[in-house]
Amino acid sequence: MQCVSPSTVVAGLLALCLPLAAAAQQADTTVSAQIFINASQLDRDGRATADEGLALDLKRTFITIDHRFNQNWSAQVTTDVQWLRNSDVSDLWLRHAYLQRSFGKGSWLRLGNAPTPWIQQESAREGYRYVDAGLIARTKMGAPADYGVHGQYARGDFTYAASVVTGGGFQKPRLGRRADIEARVGWVPLKGVELAVGGYRGTRAQDAGERTREHTAQRWNAMASWVGERSRVGAQYFRAEDWTRVVKPGSDDQRGWSGWASYQLSPQYALFTRHEETRMSLDIDPRTRERYSMVGVEWKPNKHLRLSAVGKQVRQETAKSRLESHEAGLWVQLAF
After folding, report:
1. How confident is the model at residue 20 (pLDDT cuts 50, 70, 90)?
2. Whose CA is closest to 79, among 58, 102, 98, 95?
């Protein structure tokens, strides 16, 4: 069987998305697409992972169909696929599939597979999701979407959001013995400034079937950010208990923080950076830690294209080993 390259897939997706987006822009239905691509070289401890130098990743392909039934009712379906270097193309995931009832600006109720409260806002405040996911999503300390009931209520300077979900995430839906709960409260005391706290509690559907629950996973979040006309600055922190020990004996805690900043030099060019530190096993293996750093420059010639030259460094340490990786290349977002 002949192999198909990621570049061929990208070209095919563009050929498919462009006419769909143009044909479906009706008053009640819209079709849009986002494609995240990067061409980079990744070195681990001084050894390149691919002999050919630059390798291509199709990080994400989102095709979204939004339909509005009337002023109050709407629905959204978003598909998701990826193809990472040296691996087969992923399954076609149903990223979002929900029915929404609106109750005014910023207030709604969603039923189905919808974004979870923390990660969506985390990405929106940082602003460079196409380069890398935010702290919680990148470290797999939460799922960006899940099946359940999701609600948001906005009043004055405060926004309240909560989800009652399966805990299994959108990629491999499954049911545990009880529902999980995630919540977030955001406060905007000044224009562009948001202070937020949130939390998660449940079994992450790990106790499905015959598996016995040993612990309940918990996570607490805090974030402060400012988004201005030309700048973004923010930081967040999480603390978790037993995130990976739901069906395993022995308790373990996790901690992590992230800081980011960007500056728009002109309408076309911007500089951005981010640094993260995590400790994912404070009790069982307290020497386990990771330090992640990223810096880049972005070129945005039009509303459809964002292109960044990025350098990344990741340092990982355990009781038995120390690893360091470097990655440099181009990251691209195409939107239609």
Report:
1. very low
2. 95
**Per-residue pLDDT averaged across 285-298, rounded?**
96
User: Angle CA(128)–CA(237)–CA(215) in degrees, nearest 5?
Assistant: 115
Q: How far is CA 229 from CA 191, 235, 295, 320, in A?
A: 11, 18, 20, 46
Q: How many CB atoms lie within 10 A of CB 199?
A: 19
Cβ atoms of 223 and 125 closer than 8 Å: yes
Q: How far is CA 253 from the centre of its chain?
A: 22
The 8 Å CB, 24+ separation contacts for 8-12 are 9/58, 9/83, 9/89, 10/35, 10/37, 10/58
Residue carrying the six token digits 């462009």: 18
Per-residue pLDDT, 27: 58
The per-residue pLDDT for 98 is 97
Give the mean pLDDT of the chain.
89
Q: Between 91 and 289, name the one with better pLDDT.
A: 289
Q: Which amino acid is at 226?
A: W
Cα 130 to Cα 59, 124, 216, distances in angstroms:
8, 11, 32
